[in-house]
């Protein structure tokens, strides 16, 4: 994003933006009320924040990988796209970014809930990926991020 010029930003078609969340077993995601939030900081200006509701488009299961150097449990993978109203909000983001210029800092956050109760102390790994065009590959915003379940 740091090298993302106005022309590239304006070329992003909101209907093609995709978010992928993957979690290791035993966790599964609740696929309702998943949101992407982008926050931008500009020096000397008020921060801007954009919230996008996501719609599930596909789920898949990634088989476990075991070997000499890796031991990865099975993962549940969830692909989302922006809901229709969120696409309009993305257009507002594009306009504001052109007017304000590139931000000094930006933050990507995805809000989600777990579907099932996970046993206390379980270690779950989360991946968060994004792509801005259907023909592009996903890129990681978060990879193999550990989460320890605490029910207190």
Give the secondary structure arrangement, pairings included.
Elements: H1 6-11, E1 18-24, E2 29-41, E3 48-62, E4 65-66, E5 71-72, E6 75-82, H2 84-100, E7 105-114, E8 123-131, E9 139-148
Antiparallel strand pairs: 1-6, 1-8, 2-3, 2-7, 3-6, 4-5, 8-9
Tell me about this structure.
The structure is a single chain. The chain has 152 residues and is an alpha+beta fold. It has one domain. Helix content is 15%, strand content 50%. The protein has helices at 6-11, 84-100; strands at residues 18-24, 29-41, 48-62, 65-66, 71-72, 75-82, 105-114, 123-131, 139-148. The strands form two sheets. Strands 7-2-3-6-1-8-9 form a seven-stranded antiparallel beta sheet. Strands 4-5 form a two-stranded antiparallel sheet. β2 and β3 form a beta hairpin. The longest helix is centred in the middle third of the chain and has 17 residues, at 84-100.
Could you write a compact summary of the structure shown?
This protein has 152 residues and is of the alpha+beta class.
What attributes characterize this protein structure?
single chain; 152 residues; 7-stranded antiparallel sheet
Structural class: alpha+beta
Radius of gyration: 17 Å
**Elements, N to C (H/E):** HEEEEEEHEEE
Number of domains: 1
Order of strands, main sheet, comes to 7-2-3-6-1-8-9
Between the first and last Cα atoms, what is the distance in angstroms? 37 Å
């Amino acid at each position: 994003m740091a090298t993302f010029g106005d022309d590239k930003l304006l070329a992003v078609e909101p209907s093609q933006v995709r978010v992928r969340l993957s979690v290791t077993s035993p966790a599964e995601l609740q696929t309702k009320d998943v949101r992407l939030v982008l926050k931008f900081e500009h020096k000397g200006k008020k921060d801007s924040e954009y919230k996008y509701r996501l719609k599930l488009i596909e789920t898949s299961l990634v088989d476990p990988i075991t070997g000499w150097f890796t031991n990865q449990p099975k993962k549940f993978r969830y692909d989302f796209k922006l809901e229709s109203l969120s696409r309009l909000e993305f257009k507002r983001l594009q306009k504001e970014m052109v007017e304000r210029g590139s931000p000094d800092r930006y933050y990507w956050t995805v809000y989600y809930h777990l579907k099932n109760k996970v046993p206390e102390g379980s270690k779950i790994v989360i991946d968060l990926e994004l792509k801005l065009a259907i023909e592009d590959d996903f890129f990681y915003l978060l990879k193999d991020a550990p989460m320890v379940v605490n029910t207190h």
